[in-house]
Specification:
The protein contains seven helices and 16 strands. With 434 residues, the chain is of the alpha+beta class. The protein folds into two domains: 117 residues, no CATH class; 256 residues, no CATH class. The strands form four sheets. It has a seven-stranded mixed sheet. Strands 1, 4, 13, 14 and 15 form a five-stranded mixed sheet that branches. A hairpin with a 2-residue loop joins strand 10 and strand 11. Helix 1 packs antiparallel against helix 2. The termini are far apart.
Length: 434
């Protein structure tokens, strides 16, 4: 006999593991990694399997008690007769497929047909078949599979790349050195010079500024009836919580790219340090060519730590991007032959995102070193709470999910190099090609 206690203990351990992963991500103020999401999915699948085993253990125990109470362990088994099942019930009153099969078997042994099977009997014919009883069997009722089909949003490619700031209060100021002009000093103002043995040298000093993160609330609210909470075969609260988590991730990625900085994070499209590479002379509208990409590469600060991000519509242009050579053209785009590894452009990964602007607009392609972007999250991360009091008379429960954060590039300007006419930046995009 299945040990129900052990099954429940194993189920609790798997569920606690899921909650622990979620708590760590909330505490760190970050999205789940691919491995963490896979672990949770595997745990939930295992929990569904344990639920089936627990239900079977309960039915075995109930049947054992029924047989024990009857005092008759031999001869005929009494066939359980129930009331006519409701027609709208897709399971026709059966708890699962095993329950239906047992009813069919018992009916064959005793000659007494379970009332739940009667609506499933089809009109007979002259052959043995599955649609006519007693010449074949009973139709199998509909089955409700656990879980909900859903389309997960695109993963945030900046997760794990930005500089995360743990905020204990809603406003955090970070000291920064003003060192983005290297024409005279690379250290924010200090200089050195060759002097004679008795020379005193020329004094110099550094200049500083402050970068401010001002966390703002991001909130989601949903109302759920108590009946739905009580009667839904899947936990509606968990489903809504999971949906909100996806909405928050989607909203925050969009803000990292296009946020205005007013009561929300400042996206790189509006950052003061963004470098915008001009289009080529007479360039056709809604195109990206090899010269565009090479010039973006030339303006990138710390290219070896950068990634490309582009709208999905840009792929046909990027896949064909090349540079003309003396003997042959040089392709700039490399398709990955390894599962899970992104394609690359000029040797760096490229990720496609629906949150980049449409092809031809400024922001349809970026080259970014996200380590130069600050993302501050107030202690607690993504949190949720529920109340039965807000809509008590309507018999509804209120679910609220919220977080408090801010983000921005910490560079106040693009870098002016010691030599060269072009500035450099960790965030580069291409001008509009209308």
């Amino acid at each position: 006999m299945l040990n129900k206690k052990q099954l429940l203990e194993e189920r609790a351990k798997l569920f606690d593991n899921c909650k622990a992963i979620e708590a760590v991500c909330q505490e760190d103020g970050r999205d789940m990694t691919a491995d963490e999401r896979a672990t949770i999915e595997n745990n939930l699948t295992a929990i569904d399997d344990l639920d089936s085993k627990i239900a079977l253990a309960e039915r075995i125990a109930a049947k054992a008690a029924e047989i024990g109470n009857s005092g008759d362990r031999g001869g005929k088994l009494d066939v359980k007769v129930i009331n006519e099942p409701q027609r709208e019930d897709p399971k026709r009153g059966f708890s699962d497929i095993r329950d239906m099969f047992e009813s069919v078997i018992n009916g064959g042994k005793t000659g007494q047909v379970d009332n739940r099977l009667k609506p499933l009997a089809a009109v007979g014919s002259d052959e043995h078949s599955t649609f006519a009883d007693p010449f074949g069997g009973f139709l199998i009722p509909e089955q409700l599979l656990p879980g909900v089909m859903e389309l997960a949003p695109e993963a945030d490619p900046t997760a794990g790349r930005v500089t995360n700031i743990r905020m204990n209060v809603s406003t955090v100021k970070i000291n920064a050195r003003v060192d983005k002009n290297h024409s005279s000093s690379v250290s924010g103002g200090l200089t050195v010079a060759r002097e004679s043995e008795t020379g005193t040298g020329t004094s110099s000093r550094q200049k500083y500024e402050q970068v401010t993160l001002d966390a703002h609330d991001l909130v989601g609210v949903a109302y759920i009836t108590e009946r739905l909470i009580e009667q839904s075969p899947a936990s509606i609260v968990d489903l809504i919580n999971a949906g909100f988590a996806q909405e928050f991730a989607s909203k925050q990625l969009n803000e990292k790219l296009t946020g205005t900085g007013a009561s929300e994070p400042e996206g790189i499209l509006n950052a003061d340090c963004l470098v915008t590479v001009a289009k080529e002379t007479n360039q056709t509208a809604d195109t990206i060519n090899g010269d565009n990409l090479v010039k973006m590469r030339a303006r990138s600060y710390n290219f070896g730590n950068s990634i490309w991000m582009a709208n999905h519509d840009a792929y046909p242009q990027l896949a064909k991007a090349h540079l003309g050579g003396t003997n042959s053209d040089s392709q700039l785009y490399q398709h990955s032959m390894v599962e899970g590894r992104p394609d690359s452009l000029l040797g760096r990964p490229i990720v496609y995102s629906e949150y980049c602007e449409t092809l031809g607009d400024k922001g349809d392609i970026y080259l970014c070193d996200w380590s130069q972007y600050l993302w501050g999250t107030l202690v607690g991360g993504l949190r949720s709470r529920e109340s039965m009091h807000v809509r008590f008379l309507e018999r509804e429960r209120t679910l609220q999910v919220y977080t408090c954060n801010d983000g921005r590039a910490w560079w106040s300007a693009a870098l002016t190099p010691v030599n060269g006419s072009n500035t450099l930046s960790p965030f580069v995009t291409l001008a509009a090609r209308a």
